[in-house]
Structure formats: structure tokens, C-alpha cells
């Protein structure tokens, strides 16, 4: 790195030319001859420094204060004469940690990549707050991404311009095994299905007809190589590590080049439920030629979203679906009470893997506790109601075949739910039996019983009531 003197070409021995007045300031005058071989240039450089103890800037300094640099010379076939006047000179640096940072939204091509982009988990959930420069409205959305189950989920309320389907909160679930998007109004229960859109946060277009689930890195629009590390910047009063890069075809194919900034928490100052991830996103910024977008991230977690919370049951109200009720031994009641969410996952996994159906076809899963058993109820739904645009679409088992196979396994007591101890890792095989819903209703309806004392009191009360009624009738007859 050059010293300041070398950077200003002051290291070469010059000639003292006496004193002159420049801009009304008495100055020492120094002259040197410079040659820049890179530009084939020769020049005379005149430096003017304020006379000691005669004039100084508002901030005292122990250094000579530059007032002017006068350069005249010739380069190739061109002559030049440049004058540089200096103002507000001070020694040291201002108290501003951002002075050496690249300005926001500016990407420098071919800059050496000193730090790779953060790794992104295969499962995650978070809330986003979206703001644009030109549109004075804040949009919010909860996003869930599960690459292990090929599912994504978005919970949002559409902005007024886009409320064609609903003005209420909407849950949109994308199943990339079938290519179907389920869109449900959480207030009215209205549902519609459609192929997963080709231009979406979670999808990548393979060709004009097919999409696939975006990878975890693509979900955050990470580029392959056109990016650089920008160091530590403060965003939302949080110290963040910052990367910047460029992309094309965003927000849709054919769009102009956009510049992206990714800000990740530096020092784990963000309140998060993260279990394994070392990198917690704080904010993403996107700059287009005529617009800028700001995506603030809150409550980031890499815990796998709960598969049973992907509710698409409203989309099957007028389709084939079968209700099941299972009776499970009360020996594991304490375990299930303490680990209900985990137990639900074991149940869904057992059903989907045993009869070969998508987990999303298991809906309305509930766990109840009877006096002598654990009761599990759920709906088994039909195949996907819409043909999606995915290349390797899952070939689904028919509704009747899935129902008959599960019912047959339950009848033979060959259906097994495997649960694992969270401490020792030991597994236990549970063989449930099927119940009727009349049994479920009977065994889960609270019943009132009476003690011997209560029954004796009731008997005495009824006797007194009889005497009072008889007395009242007698008085009426006599009168």
C-alpha cells in the first residue's frame, strides 16, 4: 500500500521555489518534475503549502497544510494543465466507519471474492417485511421452505391491487412432488388449486412447460460467481456481514440486470430460534433501474416446518376423502403428551411410507387422550386435484387403493408406527387398531358421575319436593 506522500507524488526530491500567495494564503512553493511511464506523460508539479504559524485550518494540525497543486505537462499527443485546490484539510480520519465502504447498491466487477456467501439450510421459516421506494405500502409475509419434503408455504394478505382472490389472510402451499399450488382463504375457507407459477420465489423454470423447486441458495437469489464480500455494515441497528452481486431475469425472465445486497447478522445479535445455522439473514436489498426493494427478515429458524400444519383440507371438501380413527396403547401416553408434535410426525411418516402416498394427503390429524387409550384421527384425501407443471411428477396411488390398503393393514394389525426416544435413540413399534367414530365420540365425551353422598342428597331432595307438591295440591282442593 502506498504512503500518503507516495500517493501524492511527494516522495521525489523537489526544488524549493520560495513563497507565494495562493487564494490569499502565504504559501511555501515546491516544484518537481514527474514522469508517468504508464501514460507516457511528463509534467511539472507545483505544490503550495501554507506558511507555518501564519495560517491554519479550524482544526489544529502538526502537519503542513496543502493549499494547491498545479500540474502542467504532456501525455502522448495531448497537453494538459490541472489545478487542484484543497479545502477543510485535517490530519487523521473522520469518525465515520463507513468512509472506506463501497456505496450502497454499487457492485464492482472482478473484485476479489474474499469470503463466500453464507450456507443456506434445507429447511427454514421466517417472516419478511417488504418495502419499495416508489410504493408507500409495507407488505408482510411468513415463508416456510422444506426441501426435504418438497413443500413451501406462504402466509400473506394481498395488497389492495392484487385482492382478486381474497382480501383476507391467504395461505398458499406449493407441492413440488405434483406441481400443484393450494391457495386457501383462512377466513372463509374458500380454496382454489392451480399449477405452481413459473415465476415465483420458490420455483425455477426448466422450460416453457415445466418448473422445479428452487434450491436453498436460489431461494435467496444467490448468484454463482458475480458477487463480492463488502465487510461489516450496520442495517436496522444490527451489525451485519454484507455481500453484493448482480443477476438478470429478476423479477421475471427478460428483466434487466438487478443489483442485490445480502446482509447477515454479525455476532448473533438477532433474536432467533436457529438451532444449527451459523448465518442468520437480516435484510436483502434489490436495486433495479427504476425501483428498489427492501426485504427485512424476522424470526428466522432452520427447524423443519411441521408437515401436519400444511393444511389443504379445504381443497378436498368436494373430493373423495376417508376419515380414520386409530386406537393406540396408553403405555406411551406420557411420551405422547410431552412430545405431541414429534409423535404426529411419526404417524404421518408411518402412513405415507407404508402405503406409498404423499404426506400432504394426510389431513386434519388430531391426537386425543381417552381414559384407557390414545386416539388418533385423520383424513386420507384423494390424489392432487390439478395437473401441475413439474417434469418428474409423482405417480400417485389411487384413492380407493390407498384407503383399502391402510384399512387392510389395520385389520390384520400389520400397520406399525415407529417412535424414537429423544434421549437414548431407542425405537418402539406401536401397532394401532381401527376404531369407529361412534367409539371416538363415546370415549372422548366427558361424562358426569355421582358419589354415594350426592345420590343420597338427591334422594332426600326429591322426597321433600314430593311433599311440597302434595301439600300445595291439598290446599288448592280444600279452598
Automatic annotation (TrEMBL):
Where does the LolA-like domain lie?
Answer: 103-316
Source domain of life is Eukaryota
Q: Name one Pfam family in it.
A: LolA_2nd_metazoa
Q: Has UniProt tagged this entry with the keyword tRNA-binding?
A: no
Q: Which residues form the signal peptide?
A: none
- Give UniProt keywords alphabetically: Membrane, Transmembrane, Transmembrane helix
- Does the entry feature the keyword Manganese, yes or no? no
UniProt name for this protein: Uncharacterized protein
Organism whose genome encodes this protein: Octopus vulgaris
Amino acid at each position: 500500500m502506498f504512503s500518503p506522500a507516495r500517493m501524492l507524488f511527494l516522495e521525489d526530491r523537489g526544488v524549493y521555489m520560495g513563497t507565494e500567495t495562493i487564494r490569499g494564503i502565504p504559501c511555501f512553493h515546491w516544484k518537481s518534475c514527474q514522469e508517468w511511464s504508464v501514460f507516457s506523460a511528463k509534467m511539472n508539479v507545483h505544490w503550495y503549502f501554507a506558511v507555518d504559524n501564519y495560517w491554519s485550518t479550524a482544526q489544529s494540525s502538526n502537519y503542513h497544510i496543502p493549499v494547491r497543486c498545479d500540474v502542467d505537462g504532456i501525455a502522448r499527443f495531448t497537453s494538459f494543465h490541472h489545478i487542484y485546490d484543497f479545502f477543510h484539510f485535517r490530519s487523521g480520519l473522520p469518525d465515520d466507519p463507513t468512509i472506506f465502504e463501497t456505496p450502497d447498491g454499487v457492485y464492482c466487477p472482478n473484485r476479489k471474492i474474499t469470503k463466500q456467501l453464507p450456507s443456506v439450510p434445507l429447511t427454514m421459516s421466517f417472516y419478511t417485511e417488504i418495502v419499495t421506494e416508489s410504493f408507500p405500502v409495507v407488505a408482510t409475509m411468513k415463508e416456510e421452505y422444506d426441501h426435504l419434503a418438497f413443500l413451501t408455504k406462504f402466509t400473506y394478505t394481498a395488497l389492495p391491487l392484487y385482492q382478486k382472490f381474497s382480501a383476507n389472510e391467504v395461505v398458499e402451499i406449493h407441492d413440488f412432488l405434483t406441481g400443484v399450488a393450494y391457495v386457501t382463504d383462512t377466513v372463509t375457507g374458500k380454496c382454489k388449486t392451480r399449477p405452481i407459477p413459473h415465476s415465483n420465489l420458490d420455483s425455477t423454470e426448466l422450460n416453457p412447460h415445466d418448473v422445479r423447486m428452487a434450491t436453498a441458495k436460489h431461494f435467496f437469489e444467490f448468484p454463482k460467481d458475480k458477487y463480492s464480500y463488502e465487510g461489516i455494515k450496520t442495517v436496522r441497528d444490527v451489525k451485519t456481514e454484507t455481500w453484493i452481486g448482480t443477476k438478470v431475469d429478476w423479477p421475471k425472465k427478460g428483466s434487466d440486470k438487478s443489483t442485490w445486497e445480502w446482509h447477515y447478522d454479525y455476532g448473533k445479535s438477532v433474536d432467533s430460534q436457529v438451532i444449527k445455522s451459523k448465518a442468520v439473514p437480516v435484510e436483502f436489498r434489490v436495486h433495479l433501474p427504476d425501483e428498489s426493494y427492501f426485504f427485512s427478515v424476522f424470526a428466522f429458524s432452520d427447524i423443519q416446518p411441521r408437515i401436519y400444519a400444511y393444511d389443504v383440507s379445504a381443497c378436498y371438501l368436494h373430493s373423495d376423502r376417508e376419515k380414520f380413527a386409530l386406537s393406540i396403547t396408553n403405555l406411551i401416553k406420557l411420551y405422547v403428551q410431552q412430545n405431541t408434535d414429534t409423535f404426529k410426525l411419526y404417524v404421518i411418516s408411518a402412513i405415507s411410507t407404508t402405503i406409498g402416498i404423499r404426506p400432504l394427503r394426510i389431513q386434519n390429524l388430531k391426537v386425543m387422550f381417552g381414559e384407557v387409550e390414545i386416539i388418533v384421527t385423520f383424513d386420507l384425501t384423494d390424489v392432487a386435484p390439478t395437473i401441475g407443471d413439474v417434469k418428474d411428477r409423482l405417480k400417485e396411488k389411487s384413492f380407493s387403493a390407498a384407503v383399502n390398503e391402510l384399512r387392510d393393514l389395520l385389520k390384520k394389525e400389520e400397520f406399525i408406527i415407529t417412535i424414537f426416544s429423544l434421549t437414548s435413540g431407542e425405537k418402539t413399534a406401536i401397532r394401532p387398531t381401527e376404531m369407529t367414530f361412534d367409539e371416538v365420540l363415546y370415549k372422548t365425551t366427558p361424562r358426569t358421575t355421582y358419589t354415594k353422598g350426592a345420590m343420597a342428597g338427591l334422594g332426600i331432595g326429591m322426597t321433600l319436593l314430593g311433599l311440597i307438591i302434595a301439600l300445595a295440591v291439598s290446599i288448592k282442593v280444600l279452598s
